[in-house]
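Write out structure tokens for LacI family DNA-binding transcriptional regulator.
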Amino acid sequence: MGVTSADVARASGVSRTTVSYVLNGTPGTSISDATRQRVLAAAERLGYAPSATARALRRGTTDLVLVVLPHWPIGPVIDTLLDHLADDLAERGLSVLVHHGRGRPLGDLWRAVTPRTVVGLTAFAPEEVRAMRQAGIQVVGTRLDDEHHDPSVYAVSQQQIGRLQVEHLVARGRRRIGWAGTTDARLVEFAEPRLAGVTAACASAGLAGPLVARLELDVPSATRAVQSWRDAGVDAVAAYNDEVALAVLAGLRRRGLEVPGDVAVIGVDDVPAARLAAPPLTTVSQSIEVQALYLARATIAALDGAVPPTPPPDVLDVVVRSST
């Protein structure tokens, strides 16, 4: 059994109530500096660590921020977002608990862990938001796109990502666009808006709609897609993300085609491997660090009852490298 506050009380010769006041920094108590130092010294000597469960029972909440991920694959972008969010919130003494959207219902989870705030990487159902707020839990939401935008919910336009890709390719003189999608059904809610943005930008530029191919992340699948694009005269490919774009580059190499001489390629996310590709990959950065900082500030504002921060106006940027 671990060291308890009773052990600290015996070692320092004071009551458990005094130990509680000292260790919890209870305001408005008249405890001498000598007594306070004696309690703290005893706690340190014994290796006392206050119980998170006990703190939660006293306050009715914990120091946890529950981050809810939908049923998405966890790749470098989500990893980076969570790392930065955890670091930013740690400066406020908050810990991040990540719940992947499978299995246990969200309502069961937040009732069990009693978080101070719940952050959703997609918008919650209205009844879930209502239940959490009635329980005194702050809710910070995001959504995947800015269609039907709710000003209380942060959105990054997935359609704008597709539009930026095509605008860049057209500015490079490309006239027949292919789109490289993913076969992962979990990513449909990202992929379809990005494809819609690519299609709309092609129409705006007076081009035919994109020739769509959905790839496995392997060379044979990419090679088959490349052949279909070349048969149709495609001279540029906008990929769903950088992983798919890297597969496209492999397929182009297999077919003996030059990048960007024969086909230009642009991805999304600016993952570290994009800089190491052959050739280095042009991509649309989503400024994940900026998004994480905004979510951390929005979380802290919700806890403090303060005005939410202004969302960053533009987190999307085309990072130009040799592949286009």
